[in-house]
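Fold this sequence, please.
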Amino acid sequence: MTGCMLYGIVINTRESSLAEEMRRLSLKELKNPSIVVSRKNYTLDLYEDTLLVKSYHPVFGSNSRAKQVADDMATPFGEYVICELDSSNIYYKFYKINYPNLDDLRSAFHHSIISQREYNEIRYLADINQAPRADSKLGGNIGIHGIGRLNFLLKNLPFVFNWTDGSIAVSNESLDELSPYLYKGTRVVIKE
């Protein structure tokens, strides 16, 4: 275990900072940032419009399927936006996405996971880019967050260990770099 941790520390110290990547690309600021997450490739990419600025190493929900219902421990796939910010979260900082979005709602209604009434209630929140209560049948409280107090341990493991309840976790340091570009309305695309 100690050898794995040391290897992880070496890998993390070789990673360039966001500021270095922006200088390399001759970018003074990011005017149109977006996030593209690939579960298959274990990447969280920060883009300026269509230009890849920097890649991060996230972990996901322990269930590899696409999220369908509450407590399934799966990360959703689709196009979302950040709808809420929480800087006092147990996982350091938390940027909630508007899961379930309209596509998620339509699918859940089509598969009889939710009723017409539930569809209408959640649809209203989706229309105003708000996430439903976490206790809805489809779940909620999904987003991008840090690791929290176990940051040193978990960020330095060089292998992938998916441990979240469906959210996307990156190291606290990575989240600090990303934070200026994660605001209400920031586009987040999550791919398989």
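The beta strands are 33-38, 43-48, 51-56, 63-66, 74-75, 78-86, 94-97, 143-145, 168-169, 187-191. Residues 2-191 form a domain with the L,D-transpeptidase catalytic domain-like fold (CATH 2.40.440.10).
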